[in-house]
Amino acid sequence: MGRLEPNHDAVRVAYEETSESAGDACVITVPAVAGKLHVLEDLEFSYDDAPAALSTIKVTSGGETLLDQYITAGGVGQFQWGEHGRHGSESARGSSLIITLSASASRKGKLNAGVR
To answer: E strands of the chain, at which residues?
Structure first.
């Protein structure tokens, strides 16, 4: 993959998702576009209370895991890659980008992502 060059036709889209009920996962799916890739610029996530053990944030595309991290503390967590992304923040070309905040026992989650 590697560093991306500026794409002047790419439009930044903000996605937001909240768990429907306590204990549900929170998922954002950015749909595939033929021949194009998505760049994840920033990602913020949180639960309404301290997370349960083994809570994770995961980003996948085209069957490949781009990010998979445990969430070990309460409060807002974030990753920022910037406008042009960097290795590890781009989807596979022609594939969707799936961002998942895992279910955490009796917690509601919130997930925000900026994608170009």
So the answer is: 13-18, 26-30, 40-47, 56-61, 64-70, 77-80, 97-101, 109-115
pTM, rounded to two decimals: 0.85
- Return the CA Rg of the chain: 14
Contact 13, 115 (CB under 8 A): yes
What does DSSP say about strands 40-47 and 109-115: parallel, antiparallel, or unpaired? antiparallel
Alpha carbon distance 93, 112 (integer Å): 22
- Structure-block tokens of residue 47: 């639960």
The per-residue pLDDT for range 6-30, each reduced to its tens digit, is 444 567 889 999 998 999 999 999 9
Low-confidence ranges of the chain (pLDDT < 50): 1-8
